[in-house]
Amino acid sequence: MNDLRSIREQRKLTQEDLSSLSGLPQSHLSALENGRFLPNKKTRKRVEQIVGHYSIDWQQTVTGDKDYITRQLVELINLQVEGVQERIGHVKRVLQTIEQNLKTLENDK
Questions:
Q1: Domain boundaries along the sequence of the chain
Q2: 44-48 long-range contacts, Cβ below 8 Å, gap at least 24?
Q3: CATH H superfamily, domain 1-64
Q4: Using one digit for the tens of pLDDT, what is the confidence trace for 34-44?
Q5: Cα–Cα distance measured from residue 67 to residue 104, given in angstroms and rounded to the nearest whole number
Q6: How many CB atoms sit inside 10 A of residue 47's CB?
Q7: What is the model's pTM?
């Protein structure tokens, strides 16, 4: 495999080692390895130079953790559903207010 974690481990480097050598925070390297985002060109070059590997499959790194991607998609869907539920709640309150106003108008006749 040519993903970052595999190459780093082949070189017998820990994330902390790579962090020290690259100047990147260990948390940043962890996020890269776990596919949370793709690195910019400067970061890619820096990491590739240090590990001595210029064919890291960054796309594989990002898509490699399918469970993480699935969790992120589920979280996004849940946020969308919550937003829709809030809007539905607002519409229901507006309709209740309109209904009350109509009843008041009928009673005033």
A1: 1-64, 65-109
A2: 46/22, 47/4, 47/18, 47/22
A3: lambda repressor-like DNA-binding domains (1.10.260.40)
A4: 877 778 889 98
A5: 55
A6: 22
A7: 0.53
